[in-house]
Amino acid sequence: MGNSDGLVFGRRTYEDLLSFWNSQDSPFKDALNSAPKHVASRTLREPLPWPNSALLKGDVAQAVAALKRQAKGELHVMGSGELIQTLMRADLVDEYLLMVHPMVLGAGRRLFTDGSSAARLRLVEATSTGAGVLLATYENLRTASS
């Protein structure tokens, strides 16, 4: 996140992170509070309660595309499943960092709903943690050349 020009969240992730991290004594609290946060929501209104937060205006894909053009560093999306799907359809995701935990939870939302999106990815790096979590970074081959 050192290269970050900000975080992009959907409403639910924004509210969940706000309620949790602002109640923790953690180094993540200050980093998240100081980071620019861009929020996709049809229900929230400004001013937003978390410092350095702003609502994305208009069409979300167009707003994020404009943020990408202005950014000197990277934009990061955490969680935000519906937002990710919107950004994927608009080819706005350049890289995926997936944290694969060794457990089976059952049914849930699929990241690559049509199955063909995963074929457009190239594994860039993979490491594992002591707890067995796989950290895998994939490059989107469609946006890498643009």
CATH superfamily of the largest domain: Dihydrofolate Reductase, subunit A
**Integer-rounded radius of gyration:** 16 Å
Could you say how many structural domains there are in total?
2
Secondary-structure content class: alpha/beta
- Give the helix level as a range of percent: 25-40%
At the fold tier of CATH, the topology name of the largest domain is Dihydrofolate Reductase, subunit A
Number of strands: 7
Strand order of the largest sheet: 3-2-1-4
Spatial shape = globular
Give the termini distance in whole angstroms.
22 Å
Oligomer designation: single chain
CATH class of the largest domain: Alpha Beta
Q: Spell out the helices and strands N to C.
A: EHHEEHEHEEEH
- Indicate the low-confidence ranges by residue numbers: none
Mean pLDDT: 87
Total of helices: 5
What is the percentage of strand-forming residues?
25-35%
CATH architecture of the largest domain: 3-Layer(aba) Sandwich
Report the major sheet. Answer: 4 strands, parallel
